[in-house]
Amino acid sequence: MGEANPTARVKFEVESEDLEHLQGYARELGCVDTRVIKAEDLYYKEGIRRKCEYPNCASYGNTFQCPPYTPRKDYMRQCIPDSFEYGIFGVLYAPEDVVSTPADGNIMESFYNAGLWSGKVNKIVGKIESKAHELGYYKAMGFNCGPCTCCGMWTKKWYEDLMTEGGAGVCPVIRGQTCKSHRRARPSAEPAGVDMVEFIRDAGLASEYLIFPENASDCVPECPYYAFVLVG
After folding, report:
1. Kindly report the CA angle at 38 between 34 and 41, in degrees rounded to 5?
2. Which of 42, 75, 162, 227 could serve as 90's disulfide partner, Cβ 3.0–4.6 Å?
3. pTM, whole model, 2 decimals?
């Protein structure tokens, strides 16, 4: 068993070397482009959260990491600048033939693949957040891109159940139980009212195209996913 690296002392000021280290780590985990961003530059809009409600997303009300359980825009707009100065932002790209609707029109397959990519990003976010903790940033907090899939949501079986009269399974936390993945489960920023799409566009971080799984494969070149971790 190798020698473990000691955890750094708690840091109350962000060091530039640590931000560079976290950027490099994000690239090692698969992020194509990474940036250090200022928390004060994020955009907050109530309409972003409303997209989870109208039309009603399949995850709405079924997981504690989605509305109506996630913090609202006004809370986040006050909380983030008050507690964080910087964040690490990484972008990954799913091939268009993975998340787009196939020629046979089987949209369930594309949603399933989108859920797989969301789960992949969630793992990357958790690792970057843990690395920030190791560096001494005790407040580090990550956000996923897409719904939480830790309980098996967005799988083929979950969607099949959703389409039946029995409905789909819901998050254990909503049922009064403890989340078995509480160290990994993270919400995306949009349900909390953070407009990541506009921020990504203005920062030149990703494709200018807006991609949803219901798009045909010949409509879009690629689908960007983001990993976002507030550092300190």
Report:
1. 110
2. 227
3. 0.87
